[in-house]
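Recall the central idea of this unit: under ordinary conditions, the amino acid sequence of a chain determines the structure it adopts. In this exercise we apply that idea directly, starting from the sequence alone.
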Amino acid sequence: MRRSFLISALAAAVLWQAGCTREALDKGETEIRWTSYSIPHIRANDERGLGYGVGYAYARDNLCLLSEEVLTARGERARFMGREGESSARLDNVSSDLFFTWLNNDKAVDAFWRAQPEPVKQLLTGYTAGFNRYLKDKGAPQACQGAEWVRPLQETDMVRLIHRLMVEGGIGRFAEPLLAALPPAALAEKTASIDTARIQGSVYERGSNAIAVGGERTENGRGRLLGNPHFPWSGALRFYQMHLTIPGKLDVMGASLPGLPVVNIGFNQKLAWTHTVDTSGHFTLRKLRLDPKDPQRYLIDGKSYPLLAREVQIQVREADGRLTTQKQLIHESRFGPLIKWPGVADWDSQHAYAFQDANLANTRALEQWYAMNRAGSVSELRDVVQRIQGIPWVNTLAADQQGQAAYMNVSVVPNVSLQQLQGCIDPALQARGLPGLDGSRSACDWQTAEGAVQAGIVPGSQLPVLLRKDFVQNANDSAWMSNPAEPLTGFSPLVSREGAPLGLRARFALTQLAGLENNPISEAFLKDLVSGERVHAANLLLDDLLQWCAALKDQTSFERACTAMKSWDRTASSQASIGWLYFQAFAREFQKANKGWSVPFDSNNPQTTPRGIDWHQPEVAKAVADMLHKAIAQVDALKLPADVTWGQLQAVAHNGKRIPIPGGDGHLGVYNAIQSVPQKDGTLKVVSGSSYIQLVSFDEKGPVAQGLLAFSQSSDPASTHFADQTELFSRQDWQVLPFRDEQIKADRGLEVVRLRE
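Accordingly, the structure predicted from this sequence is:
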């Protein structure tokens, strides 16, 4: 066994604060310097040592969180926690275990591990050892102390976490339909209770804003980047800040997801990048024609193939403490597992539906991000993204020290030509917004093209990429309007949908950018897009709505709401008045109806259309009245005082103190998108939204960065770093991100340890 020791943190801190020359690391040694807010700056001589430091630092802040997410990925929640409860994937414990036992079967985990390059294996091996070192030395925090499921990690656990991440944009959202897929003769009642809301768009939505600015639009001719990802504030997609260094090889800072020993969104000496969740399709459904001679077989080009039934087996701790075994068959075709979604993708005597997920075969994500961490320019970043093509379901935007900006919609997308789509598309699924293809003809199969790193996906060189010297932006819309001066067109609908209406966050950003004309896109301008908390839907609707109010002959029913909206400042700031609640409820109803616009959508002018309310039309006026009546009823049901503020409602609680959280519904054009859910007391609990924020500029020395982690570094309520950055986020008080050595040394909260395995 390896012997371990810990060099005195106090002595090391004294050396650094005295300004001594930075010491070289001995072989097998890892250094961690924590600056304020528990941000670890980790240095090692090789990948194993670096991973060791990441695992150790992460365990200090999030040991319980990672242990529970590993439990989920192992498919063992019901074994240790019983039937009651649900995972961060919003699946009950039994369903969660059945799904992840199927997904992370031994064969898949082994294949994923064997596909990793040696440096990635070393990072993962080191991470596992570092986490286990902390668990052995310090033990679990009170929040999970004594829990049977808090155990030393294995390398395979890291693989399971990553494999889960790969399918978040595909089969991961269809776990319930997969488990409901039983032959017609064996249908279970649970098929009627599938959570379609989780499939179509979970409350824990993942989005993001990003703007990359080129040298033509900055004060010093160098690049600038705003990264504002919207991710869950808990669970497997909760970001963590860190700074990783291997002298002479790697020096990168940013944020990563749990269990990943690389930076997902961040910056290095010469380059900054971020991601936004894309709109590309990463899967297709295949409508199978069952063999009339045997319903356990299906036909392709007239040839019969068997459906394979794989038994999944889990253990369940019952209420009396006994462990029982629960089994389920998962049915699979050559395309992938079968699903059943009542009324959408049914399994009857003639047809069944298979789910074909391109990211099930994507083993390249860690290799991809590690290469991105070391890229020295936008051009180099583009090359490694196109060559490795391991990004699963997000766009990439970047800016560099030389003044180049880039948008890349280079992820893992099925290669289905326009001609195939025209001849193979399933109309019923298309009407539901789902990519469905005929599974009975091989002519409809995904095509393997020259240059593709994986069979059946579009080669990276054929996906949307735009390099500019002014700017590029994305707020979860298709690629085509990244910069209106150079639309990206001509791609398959599975890649990008040109001519589709833009979301209001993108319209807000493009409107604000256009208002600058050719003036520099400053740091203050970019920060204000987020911290200004403006509601772009109000710019499009509120003036007309107030005119409708003023024209009413009898205003009694609407006076309270109309007066409140008139005095509202059109923001989602913590100080926003109750008028924001009335407008929010109305605007959601108006968006849902999607009619009654004064100026309808025009694909030639997507930045400013649709807009306005055509309230002079009697039928529109009546619809507005109905919508506002409904909005008033929703707000009145909360029984709020007239002087209530948004921050009194939307908040997070810590040690009996409520921290107001600004921001709101991104679908209404709030750039600082925050998602919150109602509580029994009428308040709103934040569950997702702005997470890791970075604003990176460059000077002649390198990056100049500011930002914060909205939900703070630690998920442990007893930690001093559970809510310290949340307090900053409440005030939109972005902090300097200490990248340079002199910045780290000067930090008043500096802690230093050196570790050896």
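Residues 632 and 702 are 53 Å apart (CA to CA).
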